[in-house]
């Protein structure tokens, strides 16, 4: 699947890179970059195979190099190759303060550690070469220390694992009701609870969003489609909502 330009004006562009995850065991993942005046922010760069595929082409595209890496949370499909990215760029990598010491176990060289930037629970704004990007708290959606990124210029809300779909082949949702089957199992298991979904929807409805872009599967384009996603989230029972029984020993073989 080829690259898609989601937004472009004179100095600002938002690009969904070609799918680099391949056909193996690794879960499909989307890789997005935001470029402002030649410098870039990369979202959730992923693991080693993806790094080897994406890096050479990406650097030829950027005049001013990679300024920031945003890590929505600590999972391997997001962070595993972070040492490589820090080695070959001058970028700062931003992640929840909950995870900095854990992701060091992916093998971050000591001399690169000071380019890991802690995001505190309330979020922050990142300056990308003059463009302001909001890092919005999205804790427990699914990780305990989790953030989304909102770009006010392109009106794209990047939602990490929220909105993820598994097994749908397209890059864009065409029919919301038909798409639920690809999202439902993932959200019921990985998202912590309906309570936190409701709180997130209340926040998200205050933003002007034209594209909602998850880290896995298809993106949602247009307010009508995005509102259908918000409505679905508000009513979804998931995570601890579904724990109704006692915890039992596993059945014997
Ligand atoms: Fe995750
Ligand atoms: Fe993920």
Give a short summary of the structure.
The chain is α/β, with parallel strands linked by helices. Helices cover 26% and strands 25% of the residues.
Write the layout of secondary structure elements.
Elements: E1 4-8, E2 12-16, E3 32-36, E4 39-43, H1 48-61, E5 66-70, H2 76-79, H3 82-88, E6 92-96, H4 100-103, E7 116-119, E8 124-128, E9 131-137, E10 147-151, E11 156-160, H5 176-190, H6 194-204, E12 211-214, E13 220-221, H7 223-234
Parallel strand pairs: 4-5, 5-6, 6-7, 11-12
Antiparallel strand pairs: 1-2, 2-3, 3-4, 8-9, 9-10, 10-11, 12-13
Bound molecules: fe (ii) ion (2 copies).
Describe the structure.
It is built from 7 helices and 13 strands. With 253 residues, the chain is α/β, with parallel strands linked by helices. It has a single domain (4-242), classed as 4-Layer Sandwich (Metallo-beta-lactamase, Chain A), CATH 3.60.15. The strands form 2 sheets. The chain has a 7-stranded mixed sheet, with no helix packed on it. It has a 6-stranded mixed sheet with strand order 8-9-10-11-12-13, with helices on one face. The model has no long low-confidence stretch (mean pLDDT 94). Bound molecules: fe (ii) ion (FE2) (2 copies). The site of one fe (ii) ion (FE2) has 4 residues, from loops.
């Amino acid at each position: 699947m080829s690259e898609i330009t989601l937004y472009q004006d004179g100095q600002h562009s938002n690009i969904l890179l070609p799918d680099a995850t391949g056909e193996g065991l690794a879960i499909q993942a989307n890789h997005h970059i935001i470029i402002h005046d030649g410098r870039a922010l990369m979202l959730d760069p992923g693991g080693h195979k993806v790094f080897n595929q994406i890096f050479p082409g990406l650097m030829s595209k950027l005049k001013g190099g990679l300024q920031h890496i945003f890590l929505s949370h600590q999972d391997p499909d997001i962070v595993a190759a972070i040492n490589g990215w820090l080695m070959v760029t001058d970028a700062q990598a931003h992640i929840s303060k909950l995870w900095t010491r854990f992701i060091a176990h992916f093998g971050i060289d000591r001399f690169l550690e000071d380019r890991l930037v802690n995001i505190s629970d309330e979020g922050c704004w990142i300056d990308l070469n003059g463009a302001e990007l909001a890092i919005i708290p999205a804790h427990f959606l699914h990780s305990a220390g989790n953030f989304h990124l909102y770009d006010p210029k392109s009106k794209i809300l990047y939602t990490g694992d929220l909105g993820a779909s598994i097994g749908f082949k397209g890059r864009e949702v065409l029919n919301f009701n038909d798409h639920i089957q690809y999202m439902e199992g993932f959200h019921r298991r990985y998202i912590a609870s309906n309570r936190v979904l409701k709180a997130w929807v209340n926040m998200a409805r205050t933003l002007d969003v034209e594209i909602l872009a998850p880290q896995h599967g298809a993106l949602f384009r247009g307010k009508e489609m995005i509102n259908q996603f918000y409505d679905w989230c508000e009513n979804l029972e998931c995570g601890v909502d579904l724990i109704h029984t006692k915890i039992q020993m596993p059945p014997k073989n």
